[in-house]
């Protein structure tokens, strides 16, 4: 029988397997290292991209904050101007009110039938005192006051008979309030009203 010694072949095979496994391990290690370096570079690129975006966003925020401060300053100045304009309009209305008041009373008085002895206006309240020939004249005067566009809440406080010289006349006292001036609609308000 022929005997063949296979030990050197097995030893060579074993060495070859170890060499192959070592090569596979080294190649896997090198490939993994390369992949990790590539992935690390990609992540670093993304981080830098995000950092530049953050820096750009922060500069835009700073720019917008400056714009917001400017807008708030302009709004504050606009409110101040609107308040001043409102005060000027009120002062003009009050200034014109005296002339309008006297002119309207002069127009509403019944000529040759009544005479005013006292006129006073305090705030919205108006006091009118005078003398008339009879009760009908006082009633006509009150009707004229009610029909006017300037007065509201007309009330007869007192009416008494008064003898002046040889005539029996009527002394009267009337209170009224001035009508509030209608507020002008802003252009935006008019647009809303038209849409409705």
Structural account:
This protein has 196 residues and is an alpha+beta fold. The protein has two domains: 10-108; 112-178, 2-Layer Sandwich (Gyrase A, domain 2). The protein is 63% helix and 22% strand. The protein has helices at residues 7-108, 135-147, 187-195; strands at residues 114-122, 125-132, 151-164, 167-178. The chain has a four-stranded antiparallel sheet with strand order 1-2-4-3, with helices on one face. A hairpin with a 2-residue loop joins β3 (151-164) and β4 (167-178). The longest helix is centred in the first third of the chain and has 102 residues, at 7-108.
Q: Terminal Cα separation, in Å?
A: 119 Å
Shape: rod-shaped
Task: Give the helix proportion (percent range).
Answer: 55-70%
SSE arrangement, N to C:
HEEHEEH
Strand arrangement within the widest β-sheet reads: 1-2-4-3
Low-confidence segments, ≥5 residues, pLDDT <50? none
Q: Strand percentage, roughly? A: 15-25%
Radius of gyration: 50 Å
Largest sheet: 4 strands, antiparallel
* Tally of individual helices: 3
Count of the separate structural domains: 2
Estimate the mean pLDDT confidence: 84
Give me the count of strands: 4
Helix/strand-derived category reads alpha+beta
Pick out its properties:
196 residues; alpha+beta; Gyrase A, domain 2; 2 domains; 4-stranded antiparallel beta sheet; 4 strands; rod-shaped
Summarize the structure.
It is built from three helices and four strands. It has 196 residues and is α+β, with helices and mostly antiparallel strands.
